[in-house]
Amino acid sequence: MNFDWTTVIGTVGAAASVASFTPQAWKIIRERSTKGLSLAMFALTCLSFASWTTFGVLKGEWTLIIPNAICLAFALFIFAMIALPARKTREVAETLDPTT
Questions:
Q1: 75 closest CA partner among 45, 31, 30, 35
Q2: For the chain, first and last CA: distance in Å?
């Protein structure tokens, strides 16, 4: 049996990329605030993940499509929460986590 280090490294990278957005999204929901986050940075992040997803689609590479599409969804959520007025951000967060 051949052990494919390339696949292992790619899988770890994809999992880490997807997981990296979870703490930020949860912090926004928990604290009901996006204070200190950069709208421009998340706009570029969304563009990069949209580009990588599109590249994966054009190449027919599911290993590029799936993690980048998931990261795009997280980045778009955070981008939207930053772009919303503070009152709306709190309302969305309260809807997603009404316990706090």
A1: 45
A2: 51
Predicted confidence (pLDDT) per residue in 11-30, tens digit: 899 999 999 989 999 999 99
CA distance 63 to 12: 12
The 8-class DSSP code of residue 100 comes to: -
What size, in residues, is the chain?
Answer: 100
Tokens of 18: 């997807």
d(Cα 5, Cα 21) in Å, to the nearest integer? Answer: 25
Closest C-alpha to 74, from 10, 18, 31, 15: 18
Cβ count within 10 A of residue 59? 11
pLDDT in tens, 25-81: 999 999 999 999 999 999 999 999 999 999 999 999 988 999 999 999 999 999 999
